[in-house]
Structure formats: structure tokens, C-alpha cells
């Protein structure tokens, strides 16, 4: 019978978590759901957990952040356990790999380079090191290595940053704003005259340029959109509350009434 001492040790730390994951994946005594999973089925959960970490940070919910970081750590442990079972690598190899990368990318901390440099210079040095790493992997194109599986908005920004490093970029945000006007006009025309797939293409072009504007303005577009989602949620919930005071629900109202309540909710937030 297995020794469960470590599994039930509340101070067992990372070794405890690794042991739990091995047990969950044990073909004889593990959990049927965990046993059935593979890299592909777990990947969506990994992405979801990363966003939940970002959400906790956005809301400054520090108690929740601890739990969300634990959930994200579990995803790494899960993938590493499946890789170990296939003879690919184990968790220690993952930890050693990222440790080696951090040491190599920070010679001004762990080597003999001077620490007397700005954050901007360090960013440039970081990109030089990463470019060398891509070259070692035979990734010679400027855009090589930008993961296809990234959320589309994040990938758009990363692609634009890569292109900007070799000079393929507008000189300032005013040019991007002009491009947004152009793309919006093309979208309007497409909506009136072209089939749906062309409308979708033009809409994508407009979103891509919006992501570029965010980069030029130093705005993180994903964070900005999360904030906008939160603001919309707050204000619409206020509309529902105000309607409830009148004995109504949104479906009992109309756009004119709800629009007026939206303006009221905006004014309340500004007080």
C-alpha cells in the first residue's frame, strides 16, 4: 500500500504536489478523468488559468491570487507528469531549463557584465539574446517563434513588435490613427457590398491596427479590454438594479430607458 504521509502533509510544498499528480495519473489507482487527459485536452485549462491569474491581479484580489497561482502551477505539473510518462522530460528538467535561460539572459546579474544599464538597454540586450536563441533553433525569420496558439490580440502585438525591430513600423501613433480611419472606412464599405468572409477579413484588419495603436501608446490591449469588460459589467448591473427599483427587468424596458440609466450609472461612478 502506498505511503500517503507526504500527500497529507500540509507543509509538503512542491514535492507533495508532484507526488499527488503522479498518484492522480497512476493507471491502477489514479483518477479516471486525470488518466484520460493528454496535452491537447489540458492546454485549454492552462490558458484559462493564466487568464484567471491576470484577472485576480487586475482586481487586486491578493487572496485569490495565491489560489490562482496554485491552479496555474498545477497545469505545469500536469504537463510535466504527462511528459515524464512519455519519456520526454520531467518537472526538474522544466525547472532547470527555465533556470538556465534566466541565468543566460541576465549576465549583468549572474555573470561579469556591468549592471550599470537602463531598463531600456536591458530590454534591447534581452531581445538580442532571444534572437540568438531563435537562430540556434534555426528560426531565422523575423516572425519565427511567435506562437500560433497565443490569443489573437496578444499575438498581434508580438508580431508587430518583431516587425518594428527591423524598421517595419509607423514613426508615431498619428500614422496609426490615420490607418484606423482608413480601415474603418474599408470595413463600412465591405459591410455594405461584400460577402461575410470579406467583412470578417476587414474587421480583422481593423483589430490588428487597433492592437498596433495600443503598442504605440504603451497600452496593454488585453488589460485595456478586460477593464472595459469590467466597466460594462458594472454599469449594466447598475441598470438592472435601477430597473428593479421600478419593478422591472431589462426585457421589460427599452433602449431609450436603459440608455438613460446607463448615463446615470456613469455619473454615479464619477462622483
Describe the protein:
With 271 residues, the chain is mainly alpha-helical. Among the domains are: 13-105, Helix Hairpins, CATH 1.10.287.1080; 223-270, no CATH class. The protein has helices at residues 13-24, 32-36, 39-58, 62-85, 91-105, 107-110, 119-136, 152-165, 173-193, 196-216, 221-245, 255-270. Helix 1 (13-24) crosses helix 4 (62-85). The longest helix is centred in the C-terminal third of the chain and has 25 residues, at 221-245. The model has no long low-confidence stretch (mean pLDDT 92).
Sum up the overall morphology in one term: globular
Number of extended strands: 0
Q: Please write the CATH class name of the domain at 13-105.
A: Mainly Alpha
CATH topology label of the domain at 13-105: Helix Hairpins
Output the helix-strand order: HHHHHHHHHHHH
- Content-based structural category: mainly alpha
Q: In which range does the helix fraction lie?
A: over 70%
CATH architecture of the domain at 13-105: Orthogonal Bundle
Strand content: under 5%
Could you state the CATH homologous superfamily of the domain at 13-105? MazG-like
**How does the major sheet shape up?**
none
Amino-to-carboxy terminus distance? 65 Å
> What does the average pLDDT come to?
92
Number of helices: 12
Poorly predicted ranges (pLDDT <50, ≥5 residues)?
A: none
Radius of gyration using CA atoms only: 25 Å
Compact summary:
One of its GO terms (biological process) is dATP catabolic process. By secondary structure, the protein is an all-alpha fold.
